[in-house]
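Feature request, filed as a ticket because there's no other form

It would be nice if the structure record came with a short human-readable summary line next to the tokens. Right now we just get the raw output. Example of a typical job, pasted below so the devs can see what we mean:
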Amino acid sequence: MTTPKHTPQQLQQQQQTQQAILLDVRSLEEFNAGHLQSAVHIPHDQIAAQISQISSDKQQPIYVYCRSGRRSELAKAELEQLGYHNVINLGGYQQLQADGFK
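Raw output as currently delivered:
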């Protein structure tokens, strides 16, 4: 389940003011075929092993997305189990592009 919609401008502002992380949890092939600007790639099944390389700040905003929203919801749940408190599921890549995310 996704959270209320965020605009591209809101995400960009969060990235600038709070050093928010934009996390693409799709496969490497999907990521290489296209991804949002400034996205960091960690496949959803490698979150626990790799997230500390990206952020150890449990309060840092982390926005996750995948192809449809299912894997990003799994990643969100795993991040929350690891103690990250500010995780937002943006949903699917194609819808994000349609909404104006680049």
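Something like this underneath would help us a lot:
The chain has one domain: 8-98.
The first helix runs from residue 8 to 18.
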